[in-house]
Design a protein that fits this description.
Helix content: over 70%
Number of strands: 0
Shape: globular
Number of helices: 16
Largest sheet: none
Structural class: mainly alpha
Distance between the termini: 32 Å
Order of helices and strands: HHHHHHHHHHHHHHHH
Radius of gyration: 20 Å
């Protein structure tokens, strides 16, 4: 039987390739839309919001179904489905001729997404309980490492070879992810017998030790992702506003998009291990508070250097937030329904990915870029208050 550490290494590689592939296109999507015929700051903001949100609308609806299927057929199958589907559809995005075609393909990607959340669910099921926080933190570094390199590589390729080439390279990387997951990831999974009917949604939540806390964690996932995703549609345009004379906008935007990954890469395993020792709930609350403060400070920046420094600091909280949430979910969930619970959490993550870009695009179109960060900070504060309410209750104290 394979070592769980070797299995973790294989999933780390898969998360790295997905993180690299998906982040390569982020710096230039608004510029790609301009090439496809969208002009004007307000129109670019709104179309960017639709492009960033398209896949997540479908994913938010379909994720519970994939989670249910994962509990019955295994989570490795979900990794293969997601990586192969994304490889095909990402390549197709390099051939579109109109903005609406790009939006439609992004929506179709919603049927095939979910590699990283399913990798986390598989890891949570396979890892020793006392090492869960560390293992999830380590797995996070795979995604973050890809996210660090992706925007810089994608921005450089876009500047030198054109936007469409980046989509084709991205598709090839995702196909490599499919191959590595197929041959190197192994799952010790026992399929339920035919006479074991799937639990209803009500029965799934009844099996949880703390249903209220789990639902609170779903909301936390949505708010964390909303705050991060609200910046995506406007980051390149905000950088252009701060440095109107720059000639390599895509590359600078890629660097600004990537810098949080550097600090998150450093912090994720360390904070995951700290969460195993002092409790992931404490890590989550402190990280939410610092995130709100940093978002408010970002709204006041005057140049790209200040923006880069603050986004670097935000990476430390990024390295703490999602591993803390996922560790708490794993602690509260029976392995037999882990796929369902992570599927529901994935739906809330995608709802954040839907609402975030729409929020960022809408607020920036009507009030300006800086107000996007202010509104995101206020929403994070509300989430902090909500999580304090759940965690302070006596029956949740062990979390």
């Amino acid at each position: 039987m394979r070592s769980w550490k070797l299995n973790l290494a294989a999933m780390w590689l898969g998360c790295f390739l997905v993180g690299l592939s998906m982040s390569q296109i982020l710096p230039f999507l608004p510029l790609y839309l301009r090439q496809l015929g969208v002009h004007g700051e307000a129109s670019l903001s709104l179309w960017s919001g639709a492009v960033f949100s398209g896949s997540f609308i479908v994913s938010a609806i379909i994720s519970p179904f994939w989670g249910k299927l994962a509990d019955r057929q295994g989570r490795k199958l979900m990794l293969l489905r997601a990586s192969l589907g994304m490889a095909i559809l990402m390549t197709a995005q390099g051939f579109v001729a109109a903005p609406w075609q790009l939006v439609m393909l992004r929506m179709l990607m919603g049927l095939t997404s979910g590699y990283i959340p399913n990798a986390f669910a598989l890891a949570a099921a396979e890892m020793p309980k006392e090492r869960t926080g560390w293992a999830l933190g380590t797995l996070t570094t795979g995604q973050i490492s890809g996210v660090i390199l992706g925007p810089m590589i994608g921005g450089a390729m876009a500047d030198q070879m054109g936007f469409r080439t980046v989509f084709m390279v991205t598709g090839a990387l995702l196909f490599c992810c499919f191959l590595s997951s197929c041959y190197w990831v192994h799952e010790s999974f026992e399929k339920p017998t035919k006479d074991q009917r799937p639990l209803s949604r009500k029965e799934v939540f009844a099996s949880l030790s703390s249903p209220g806390l789990v639902f609170g964690l779903f909301i936390a996932t949505m708010m964390i992702q909303l705050a991060n995703a609200s910046i995506n549609p406007i980051l390149t345009l905000f950088v252009a506003q701060l440095s109107p004379q720059t000639t390599n906008l895509a590359f600078i935007s890629g660097v600004i998009a990537a810098v949080p990954g550097v600090s998150a890469l450093l912090s994720a395993p360390m904070l995951g291990k700290l969460g195993d020792r002092i409790g992931s709930a404490r890590i989550l609350l402190v990280a939410l508070a610092i995130t709100a403060l940093l978002l408010m400070l970002v709204s006041l920046v005057q140049n790209t250097f200040e923006l880069g420094i603050l986004r670097f600091l935000m990476g430390f909280t990024d390295g703490a937030l999602m591993p803390a949430v996922q560790s708490l979910l794993a602690q509260q969930t029976n392995k037999k329904v882990l796929g369902r619970v992570f599927g529901y959490n994935q739906s809330f993550l995608y709802l954040g990915n839907v609402a975030g870009p729409l929020l960022g695009a809408g607020v920036s179109a009507f009030a300006g870029f800086r107000w996007v960060f202010v509104v995101s900070a206020v929403l994070v504060v509300f989430n902090l208050i909500q999580m304090k309410h759940y965690i302070r209750q006596p029956r949740y104290a062990h979390a």
